[in-house]
Amino acid sequence: MTDSPLFRPIAARLIRRTIVLSALCVAVVLALQTWLLWQQHRQRLVEVVETVGSTHVPLLGVALWDIEPQAVQLQVRAIASWPEVGHVRVRAATGQVFVGGDASLAGAPHSHVVEISAPRGGPPVGQLELVADPAHLRSVVGRNALQMLMGYGVLVTALCVLIAVMLRRELQTPLESMARFAAELTPEQLTKPLQIERPTRQGRVDEIDVLADGISKLQAGLRGHIANLDDLVAERTEKLELLVEEIHRLSMTDALTGAYNRRTIDDRLPSEVERSHRYGRDLSVLFLDLDHFKQINDSHGHPVGDVVLRHMANCVRERLRSGVDWIARYGGEEFLVVLPETPLDSAVATAERLRERIAAELIVLDGGLNLSITASFGVTACREGDDSSTLLARADALLYEAKLAGRNRVASST
Ligand SMILES: Nc1nc2c(ncn2[C@@H]2O[C@H](COP(=O)(O)OP(=O)(O)OP(=O)(O)O)[C@@H](O)[C@H]2O)c(=O)[nH]1
């Protein structure tokens, strides 16, 4: 058994991808902007530190010239109080050193050094070394980056929500309806209309409308096709039933005379005998055989013999009770007539009537030739203990008797 593949709606996937891509874009833009901000503020920090240094240098010059360590220290503290300044060191020409700010930044590689001149242009009285505060830089850049992150975050979140709502409304809901409809559609439900919830679009169509329209047309086409198929099947079935009926009729009928054939005798006679025994009903049979038929064949040819056989079968059939009696060709020029509900005397009377009729009717052949024929009959009735073979054997023996007695006659016995 194979697991069915995991179902992942397209719209949900698009929404997820939009969110991931937006987050990536925000991260890249934010990183770039933070880097630019870092460069800008670092440059600005250096400038601020230089400005601060040069502002305090004249005052430091006076304090060092007057050898007033407290005033120097005061200036150092004032310089160190600037947020941009990390560390301050003043080295007096006398060798005295004054420090302020973060001592861990002392000796940093990018320090800014300014010579401190004596008041009124005397020789240098010391050196001022300033180091920018990297923590200040980090905090300023960090604050700005955080603000940008929040701004972008709000913007991107709002955009993602809007896109998600639109994708859900425009894509996910109609596609889900169509997918559910297609999955649940069975041949019996072909008339079920496809209903999709969609916002009104004032006469404009898109791929989903085209698809839905295609499905509706396909349904209509299939319905028409199935209806045609039903008609076609009904028509073919009718033809087939007629053909089967015809085949059945042919399988039961003798092709030359139209009488039933030997096979039908084997099929029907046992049940006629059985019915006669079970319900105590009369049943008679008569065997008839054309007299001197060989002579007709020999004198006029087989085709004429065939005409005579057909003539005789028709002559007998026309005089039987329709739907009750039946005639079958037993073989050659010998026929069996079955007379249900008929006692022997009535069967003998029927046989006599038939014999007279056959003998009386002239067969008109092509070329003006007229033929008269006679037939001999063996008639018997079904009696207790009979089956179809004993009944036929008795009728056949009686027919033989009729032939022996001179032909064109009826021999009978119970
Ligand atoms: N034309 C034609 N002849 C057939 C057919 N079936 C059998 N026959 C012929 O029927 C003839 C039967 O001859 P016989 O058995 O001697 O019988 P008969 O000449 O009628 O003589 P009796 O029955 O003794 O009066 C044969 O010549 C067969 O060839 C058939 O379908 N068509």
Automatic annotation (TrEMBL):
NCBIfam families: GGDEF. It comes from Hydrogenophaga defluvii. It is an enzyme of class 2 (transferase). Keywords: Membrane, Transmembrane, Transmembrane helix. Residues 281-414 form the GGDEF domain. The chain crosses the membrane at residues 20-38, 149-167. Pfam families: GGDEF (PF00990). It catalyses: 2 GTP = 3',3'-c-di-GMP + 2 diphosphate. This is diguanylate cyclase. Its EC number is 2.7.7.65. Residues 169-227 form the HAMP domain. SUPFAM superfamilies: Nucleotide cyclase (SSF55073). It comes from the Bacteria.
